[in-house]
Write a structure and sequence with these properties.
CATH architecture: Orthogonal Bundle
CATH superfamily: Winged helix-like DNA-binding domain superfamily/Winged helix DNA-binding domain
Structural class: alpha+beta
Largest sheet: 2 strands, antiparallel
Mean pLDDT: 88
Helix content: 25-40%
Number of strands: 2
CATH class: Mainly Alpha
Number of domains: 1
Order of helices and strands: HHHHEE
Radius of gyration: 13 Å
CATH topology: Arc Repressor Mutant, subunit A
């Protein structure tokens, strides 16, 4: 998805919204991921805080989106070389 840092809305896939297999909470997580501009803090801790939920719940919801092919999660070594950050690729259609 494109960088949404200068707009007050984001686009959410109609396919996802109509997918009965995906929970409502996972759809909220998808919308949050779509609204995060590139380079913003997309850590599980930060995403969980924004949706007022535990980190374990946020991680489970992202796993649900991965299972249905709407999100891909990749761990990348941070610039400091010591830590890892999580990168999310959000797809408008299921990849499975």
């Amino acid at each position: 998805m494109s960088d949404n840092s200068d707009v007050e809305f984001c686009l959410v896939s109609k396919e996802l919204l109509e997918d009965r297999l995906v929970s409502a909470k996972a759809k909220a997580m998808y919308a949050l991921l779509c609204s995060c501009p590139e380079g913003s803090d997309r850590s599980i801790k930060n995403l969980a805080a924004k949706l007022d939920m535990r980190r374990e719940t946020a991680s489970r919801l992202i796993s649900e989106l991965e299972d249905y092919g709407y999100v891909e999660r990749t761990r990348i070594r941070a610039p400091d070389g010591k830590h890892f950050v999580t990168d999310f690729r959000v797809y408008p259609r299921s990849t499975i």
